[in-house]
Amino acid sequence: MSTASAITSHPVLKSLLGAWALAACSAEETAAVEAHLTDCAACAEEAVRLRDAVALLHPEDSLDLDPTLRSRVLAGALGRRPARIPVPGWAAPYEAEAARLDALLRDIGETEWQAPVRLAWFDGRDAVSREATVAGVISHLAAVDGIVADALGLTGDAGTATPEERTETAWAAQSGVRAPVVRAAWRDQGHTLIRTASFEGGRAADLAVEYGPFSLPLRDAFLDRAFECWVHAEDIAEAVDYPYEPPSSSHLHRMIDLAARMLPHTIAARRRAGLAPPARGLVRAGTPGRALHLEIEGRGAGHWYIPLDSPGAVGTPEEEVAHVALDGLEFCRLAAGHIPPDEAAAGQLGDREAVQDVLFATASLSRL
Amino acid sequence: MTNDALRWDLKMQQRLAHGEAAALGELYDRFASLVHGLAHRVLGDESGADRVTREVFAHVWEHPGDFDPRNGSLRSQIASLAHRHAVSRLRLAEDDGERSAEEVEAKVRAASAAARADYIVTSMPAPLRAALDLAYFRRLDYRQAADRLGVTEDEARRRLRLGLQLLSTAHDGPRAVSPPQRYGAVR
C-alpha cells in the first residue's frame, strides 16, 4: 500500500491520471488526484483530455462482413479497370470459399482452435467419422491443397501421396504449432495457388493433378478444393456454433457439375470393388447409353444425365431410365458423406437399381 | 518484422499496378474489415459502409500509384481513404437543409473522432491495448491489471496513461488517422 505522503508528489499524481480517468485506482488515490487537480493546471488539462478519451473507448463490434460483399467489391473494381491477369473462372469458387473460411477463422478466438470437430464421410459401405480439432481441419485442408501445389510445381515435390497420407503426415507434425501459424500456412499457400493459376491461365487448366487413386485436371481440382473448403468450414462453424452460409448458386452449380461428371467413374469403381451390381450392358465410348436424370433444385440448380453403364458413354435424355430430384444443398451433403445414401431426401422415379447406384456413388465421392 | 511489412506493401502495390486480380482479392482479405469497420463507425449503417468499401477498393485498384510509403503504411493510407470517403458521405447525408451547418459539422466531428479512435485502438502497441482492455472492459483497477499483465504497478499506470494519451489524439483532426505510422513504429 502506498503511504499518504507518497501520493502527494506531483510525478506520482501525474502517473495516476490514466488510471484515475478509467476509475481504476483506489478511493484514497482518487481523492488525492482530485485535490491535486484544483491547483495544478497542467494535470487538470491532461485529466480532462484523458477523461474525454475514455468516452471514445468502445467495445469492439464483431460485425461480420457480409460474405457476398467480397464479390461485389471486386466486381465493382474490375468493372472500372479490367484485370490484365484475371483469376480464371474455375479458380473463383476456391478463392471465394477460402476467403469465407478465413473470415470465420478470424472471428473465432484462439482457444476455439482446439475445439473438437467431427469429420464424417462415407467409405463406400458405411458412414465413418473421425475427431479432429479446428487446427487439425485447417492443416488437413492445407495438406490436401498441397496436391495442387505439387502439380503446379510450387513445392519441387513429385507428390505421390494420397490426401489421407498427406493428412496423417501433417497431423503427426502438427503438435505444438500455434493456431496463427497453421492459419497463415494454409492461407498463404491458397493465395499462391490462386496467383499461380492466374498467371498460368488457360495453359494450365488441363494439367493433371494426381490424387493417388485418381487424377483431375487442374480446373476440376480447384473445384474439388473449393468444395472441401466449404464442407470443412461448415464442420468448423458447427463445432464453434457459428452461422455459415452455403456458397453462391453459380459456384455451387460448378461443384455439383464436377460431382456429376465424376459419378460414372465412381459407379464403375464400385462395381469393380463388388459394391454395386454389374453393368447391364457395355456401351462403346462416346455413344449414348442408359442414363439417370439428375435434377438439382434450388441453389446450384441444373439437369445432368449420368451414363450408368460405362464412364465413357454419353448420357442423354432419350436414354433416361430413372429420375432423381434433389435440393442442391442436400446433394452436396450427400456427396460430402454427411448423410447416408438411403436417407437422402430424394424424389425418385424409374429404375430403382439405377437410383441406388447413383445415390451410393454420390456418397462414395466423399473422403476424409 | 517492419521491413517485412514494407516489403509486403511494395509488392502489393506492384502487383496491383500490374493488373493482377488475385492481388486485389488479397488486399480485400487483409483490409476489408478495417475499411468496413471504420465506415460503419462513421455512418452507422450497413449499406453506406458497404458502399464506402466498394469505393475504397475500386480507388486503390484504379490508382495503385497513389500509395507512397513515405506517408505511412498501406494500412494507414487505406484507413485514411476509408475515413475520407465515409466522412464525405456522412456530410452529404446530414446536409439535408433541415439542420444548421454547425449541427452537421458537430455530428461529422463526433463520428470522425469515434472512427479515428477505433483505428488508434487497433493500431496501438499490444501492451497498451491489453492494459486498457483490462481496466476499461473488465473493470480491473490498475493493481489488478498489473498483476494480470505481470508488470509493476508503475508500469501499469504508465500504460494506461500512455494508451489514453494516444487515444485522445482522435479528437485532434484528420492527421491522427495516418500518424506517420512508420514501418519502424514502437512495439
Descriptive account of the structure:
The complex is a heterodimer of chains A (368) and B (187). Chain A has 368 residues and is of the alpha+beta class. Chain A has 3 domains: 4-54, no CATH class; 87-239, dinb family like domain (Four Helix Bundle (Hemerythrin (Met), subunit A), Up-down Bundle), CATH 1.20.120.450; 249-364, Nonspecific Lipid-transfer Protein, Chain A (2-Layer Sandwich), CATH 3.30.1050. Helices cover 51% and strands 15% of the residues of chain A. Chain A has 14 helices and 8 strands. In chain A, the strands form 3 sheets. In chain A, strands 6-5-7-8 form a 4-stranded mixed sheet. Chain A has a two-stranded antiparallel ribbon with strand order 1-2. In chain A, strands 3-4 form a two-stranded antiparallel ribbon. The longest helix of chain A is centred in the last third of the chain and has 24 residues, at 249-272. Chain A is elongated, with a radius of gyration of 29 Å. The N and C termini of chain B lie close together (10 Å). Chain B is built from 8 helices and no strands. Chain B is flat and about 50 Å long. Chain B has 2 domains: 1-117, RNA polymerase sigma factor, region 2, helix turn helix motif (Rna Polymerase Sigma Factor, Chain: A, Orthogonal Bundle); 124-175. Chain B is mainly α. Helices cover 73% and strands 0% of the residues of chain B. Classes of the chains: A alpha+beta (368), B mainly alpha (187). At the A-B interface, helix 3, helix 5, helix 6, helix 7 and helix 10 of A face helix 2, helix 3, helix 5, helix 6 and helix 8 of B.
